[in-house]
């Protein structure tokens, strides 16, 4: 009776919370906090979530804020002359691995591009735009659209800088033209690189398509130079039409190639526990097509702080009670509610009234309305703002060859069918988003036309707290990266996703060679970025598997005191996962 009462209470709480979450959004939002916070003795760097893929803080002994290329050049020269290690960060800082964290010693310098964000120059005859590295994506798009042109590719989240999104391989979804990755629309870059004394310890280098360093510079992870300016190709302004088609999930792993080939900006959202797949039918339409639609994705809208904290509290209550049913209630109701509001699509910039939703490219390709506000309180914000007790989650992003993607989905379905309720934990975080990225010549870009699978799931407040259905997500993660050889998205993922990453990028050796040539002194070196790029295996501490810092091989890598032991996977039996049981021997 007590268990039934607890489950009923959680269900009622989640129902009320969900109604708040889906229908109480605000137009006023508390803007995100700057990623660099300083006191009288030291500065600390974080990301927009308030937590990297490790929980270790990132102390920064010194920070500079250049506002021009000349300032940036002077900063790199000073650091090179003084034998300092450099990292750069934007005003957004959405990277989950610690690529932006400099060497954790006193001989390090962090350069923020938050004030280097003014210049946007459009060349109509060449159909290009050149922007300072710190320019925000929304500012760039608005300027380009006002000039009667469009940027073809963009990530779905607009809270990124131009330098940051190019250097981390950010993307939308398309196998058409130059593809969905923004770096494949780059035609030139200006870099500030270390130099010798005779050249003033730093110099500006321009790279364009065909130059030996171009393919190393486009996805460089902040490891070879300071990006100063980026030049992107444009097209004449165009409109898009979006319709979401709701299907059962019986055959989407066989349908995806046809969908991607037929529709320029197609994607698929898969909700495994609901056995639903949502096909995004997304194409260009003539400029004369009526419509002033806007993509204001509901997950990126401003959310009342009360709602965000209530959702988090409901999640934690379900975790504590080990109530997958509680999470399933949330998943089912959330999907139904999001359907009613078109997932944030708006036909007239106010309401969703039905499909198709037609609008200009600049209003349809990306979103992030929770970023913008003049509000001076914390009554509403992005739902994951670390200053409130809102959403905290992992983000796993695996990039597959098309053939391996199909096999992966079939394995996940086998695991799902053993107990669909175990998959509710991602379905209340928008399920699995499946996108398409074209083959790139960038050394750290995708070496083939690829399928990107992205999913979020609950992260505990404490690193040593195990999670509900933890073994399921660890098995899915290991299926992706180990069994099916997926490549990790550079700006996302837990540490285990990067194990063996060097073998997955055929031009990794070319990137490393270019890095040594451009930065022979290792000015842009840090142990954090080195650990990710090289896919290093570090020592295994107690509880290391709980947050993806290792793959368990002993029970102590899980949480035996809480009943979580290291076990084989259920479908991928070579996997080693932390599974809850009442005893170590089943």
Q: What's the total count of β strands?
A: 27
Helix content: 25-40%
Largest sheet: 8 strands, antiparallel
> Which term fits the overall shape?
globular
| Number of helices in the DSSP assignment | 14
Average pLDDT across residues? 92
**Order of strands across the widest beta sheet?**
20-14-16-15-23-24-22-25
- Radius of gyration of CA atoms, rounded to a whole number: 23 Å
Q: Approximately how much beta-strand content do the residues carry?
A: 15-25%
Indicate the low-confidence ranges by residue numbers.
Answer: 1-24
**What structural class is derived from the secondary structure elements?**
alpha+beta
How many angstroms separate the termini? 27 Å
Organism: Dioscorea alata (Purple yam)
Protein name: D-arabinono-1,4-lactone oxidase protein
Keywords: Oxidoreductase
EC number: 1.1.3.37, 1.1.3.8
Please render the helix and strand layout as text.
Elements: H1 2-23, E1 36-38, E2 43-45, E3 58-60, E4 63-64, H2 69-81, E5 85-89, E6 108-112, E7 120-123, E8 128-132, H3 137-146, E9 149-150, H4 162-167, E10 186-194, E11 202-208, H5 214-217, E12 226-233, E13 235-236, E14 239-248, H6 252-262, E15 267-271, E16 276-285, E17 294-295, E18 303-304, H7 305-320, H8 324-340, E19 345-346, E20 357-360, H9 361-364, E21 380-381, E22 393-400, H10 402-418, H11 424-427, E23 432-437, E24 450-458, H12 470-483, E25 487-488, H13 508-518, H14 527-533, E26 564-568, E27 576-580
Parallel strand pairs: 4-6, 5-6
Antiparallel strand pairs: 1-2, 2-3, 7-8, 8-12, 9-13, 10-11, 10-12, 14-16, 14-20, 15-16, 15-23, 17-19, 18-21, 22-24, 22-25, 23-24, 26-27
Helix pairs in contact: 1-7, 1-8, 7-8, 10-12
Protein name: D-arabinono-1,4-lactone oxidase protein
Keywords: Oxidoreductase
EC number: 1.1.3.37, 1.1.3.8
């Amino acid at each position: 009776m007590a268990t039934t009462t607890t489950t009923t209470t959680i269900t009622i709480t989640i129902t009320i919370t969900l109604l708040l979450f889906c229908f109480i959004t605000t137009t006023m939002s508390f803007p995100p906090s700057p990623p660099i916070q300083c006191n009288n003795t030291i500065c600390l760097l974080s990301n927009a979530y308030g937590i990297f893929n490790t929980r270790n803080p990132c102390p920064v002994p010194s920070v500079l804020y250049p506002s021009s290329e000349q300032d940036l050049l002077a900063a790199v020269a000073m650091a090179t002359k003084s034998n300092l290690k450099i990292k750069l960060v934007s005003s957004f800082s959405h990277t989950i691995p610690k690529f932006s964290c400099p060497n954790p010693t006193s001989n390090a310098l962090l350069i923020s591009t938050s004030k280097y964000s003014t210049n946007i120059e459009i060349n109509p005859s060449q159909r290009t735009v050149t922007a300072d590295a710190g320019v925000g994506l929304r500012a760039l798009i608005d300027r380009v659209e006002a000039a009667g042109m469009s940027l073809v590719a963009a990530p779905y989240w607009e809270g990124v800088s131009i330098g940051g999104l190019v250097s981390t391989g950010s993307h939308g979804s398309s196998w058409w033209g130059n593809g969905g990755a923004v770096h494949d629309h780059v035609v030139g870059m200006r870099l500030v690189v270390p130099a010798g004394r005779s050249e003033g310890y730093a110099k500006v280098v321009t790279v364009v398509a065909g130059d030996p360093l171009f393919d190393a510079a486009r996805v460089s992870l902040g490891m070879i130079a300071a990006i100063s300016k980026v030049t992107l190709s444009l097209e004449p302004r165009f409109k898009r039409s979006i319709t979401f088609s709701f299907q059962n999930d019986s055959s989407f792993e066989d349908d995806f190639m046809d969908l991607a080939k037929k529709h320029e900006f197609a994607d698929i959202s898969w909700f495994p526990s609901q056995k639903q797949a949502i096909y995004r039918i997304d194409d260009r339409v003539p400029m004369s097509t009526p419509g002033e639609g806007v993509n204001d994705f509901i997950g990126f809208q401003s959310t009342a702080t009360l709602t965000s904290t209530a959702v988090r509290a409901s999640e934690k209550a379900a975790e504590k009670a080990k109530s997958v049913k509680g999470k399933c209630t949330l998943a089912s109701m959330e999907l139904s509610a999001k359907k009613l509001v078109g997932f944030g699509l708006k036909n007239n910039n106010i309401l969703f009234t039905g499909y198709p939703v037609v609008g200009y490219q600049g209003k349809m390709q990306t979103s992030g309305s929770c970023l913008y506000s003049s509000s001076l309180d914390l009554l509403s914000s992005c739902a994951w703002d670390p200053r409130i007790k809102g959403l905290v989650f992992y983000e796993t992003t695996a990039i597959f060859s098309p053939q391996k993607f199909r096999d992966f989905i079939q394995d996940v379905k086998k695991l799902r069918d053993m107990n669909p309720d175990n998959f509710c934990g991602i379905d209340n975080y928008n399920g699995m988003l499946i996108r398409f990225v074209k083959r790139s010549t960038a050394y750290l870009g995708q070496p083939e036309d690829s399928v990107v699978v992205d999913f979020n799931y609950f992260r505990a407040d404490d690193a040593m707290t195990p999670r509900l259905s933890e073994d399921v997500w660890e098995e899915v993660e290991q299926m992706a990266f180990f069994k099916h050889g997926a490549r990790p998205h550079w700006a996302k993922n837990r540490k285990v996703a990067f194990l063996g990453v060097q073998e997955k990028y055929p031009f990794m050796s070319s990137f490393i060679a270019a890095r040594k040539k451009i930065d022979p002194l290792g000015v842009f070196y840090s142990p954090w970025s080195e650990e990710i790029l090289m896919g290093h295996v570090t020592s295994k501490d107690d509880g290391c598997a709980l947050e993806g810092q290792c793959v368990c091989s002993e029970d102590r890598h899980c949480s035996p005191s809480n009943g979580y032991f290291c076990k084989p996977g259920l479908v991928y039996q070579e996997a080693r996962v932390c599974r809850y049981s009442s005893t170590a021997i089943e």
